[in-house]
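User: Please predict structures.

Assistant: First:
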Amino acid sequence: MEALEIVRQDAVSFVIAPEIDQQSSATREALLGRAMGLKWKRKSSQKLRRGRRPSEGLAFVALSEDGVLAGTVRLWDVATGDGRPALLLGPLAVDPSLKSAGIGKALMSHAISEAKRLGHKAILLVGDAAYYGRFGFSADKTGALSIPGPYERHRFLALELVSGALDGAHGTLKPTGRKTRTVRVAAAA
């Protein structure tokens, strides 16, 4: 795996790298459960991700020096109700034992930078405005947008990577990304 960025924060060193083929799904799921609680799969934003693959080139992991998964972030292709393409960020998760080591910040900064480099125009997410505000996210452009299912409106945030990309955007977000491959298992005769 090609390391994209080596980060040293206090006594913690980690590598930000592309996620490889859903990088041990069980390990990632366990990390998400530890970081976000067991109900993370029931969040409304998960409905937009279910059955889809992350946007091409926009799934990243943070690995400790010994190769242990320390954090994860993915971005997903969506469209606004009026058809504008955008990305949905999440979930962002860091192993609770490494909280405040700068891993979340490094993952966010890298994900935003790569999304911009790849030509995407806007990123949306549902999250804590105090945390995501430091990266430029706000609720200023989400007033006429919504996501399927219940969510707290003040936590629905956006970051324009291209100024004006969400001007006048409205409607409910829809998933547009690549679908996951389903593996069919033949029944034994």
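Second:
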Amino acid sequence: MEKNLTMQTDFYELTMGNGYFLEGYEEKETVFDMFFRKIPDDGGYAIIAGVEQVVDYLKNLRFSEEDIEFLKGKQIFDERFLEYLKSFKFSCDVWAIPEGTPVFPNEPIVVVKGPSIQAQFIETMVLLTINHQSLIATKASRIVRSAKGGAVIEFGSRRAQSYDAAILGARAAYIGGCSGTACTIAEQKFGIPAVGTMAHSWIQMFPNEYEAFKTYAKHYSDNCIFLVDTYNVLNSGVPNAIKIHKEVLEPQGKRLKGIRLDSGDIAYLSKASRKMLDEAGLKDCKIMASNSLDEYIIKDLFEQGAKVDTFGVGERLITSKSEPVFGGVYKLVAIEEDGELIPKIKVSENVEKITNPHFKMVYRLYDKETNKALGDVITLADEEIDENKPYVLFHPVYTWKKKKLQNFRAVPLLNKIFNRGQCIYEPKEVKEIKEYCREQFNTLWEENLRLENPQTYYVDLSEKLWSLKNEMLKDISEK
């Protein structure tokens, strides 16, 4: 991170920290979980992204003299607390599920264990970083799946909520399956292929469409993709593209790479354009579509027989317009008393807001024969799942719903990335993360991946965790 984001925090993190310090709680060991309760768009899965940016933030966590002076000026913080902040050094343990992994409601995706002030303070940045990129990666994955193998290019920079959202959104979209981005700096920073065609203004700059295409072909003969809807797609746009191929590109041994449709009835225009291109001997010329696309519109286009090879998707991807919030939360689940971790639980009249207590691990169980994911199990941190014995999954609410598993392997999902404040995370190229994400999707069932009414993926509690939770709820109800 090029800038110090230490003060990018909710103010109550600081007032609570001041209170913890004055009560002598600054070194009290605590455990916090980040998890989410609902998958965006009522989908069957989400994708975690943003872990590397959390790592960057934690590695650079420090209070500058300017920060301390600002806090001093608020006149509510104890001088001893401000002195503590001057020498602040992050010393927590942190675990995270690897970026690109499909994740599901209520399972911890980031776990922080360490001194109360530190573990509490980082809540805001952990949430905003993971929430944002996971939201965009999840939306991108849905859109890419709807494209049925067609390339999807992230086109949303100019509609993103900020320049950071554009850059990191492009990163998340690439992890989710997009093949490139229009955001140039995303290639410079992350190596994500930056691509583009032309704007309507290019066409309008020249005396006519034919001259605009001809000039473009003169400078970019190896990668000509013409925007054909500035005036009339079928009467001038596609015919002029074909003329330039015949008169300019073909004599050089070059081929017209593609045309782009950015308005109108994409299904009809793509079919008519495909016919014209094929008749002109340009069966290899690709058709790109853009203009406020999302997974549902792309699905409809295919159902209408559209002949589109590549999709440029902008604001509905980069803002996840259909559901623009990834509802990750950060909750205290345990504190240390006399050297022992004591589980904590949050109770609510809304059943879905009751938390799973204690320091935990998440396991994914795979069928050894098919390598398909059978479900996830949230366990206590010190539990191990014996692969040599049958394992019974049961619904944490409707406990009579059970499934007995055999011939499976159990993989712990949470990997340690900080050890007492020391970063032990190995950075990865974003292309590697994207490939890992693709591999992980191959372990999910098609029923879990449907755009609409997907099969619910099993996320169950171990018997020990389930019993602990119910005992705590019973104790609270009896008080």
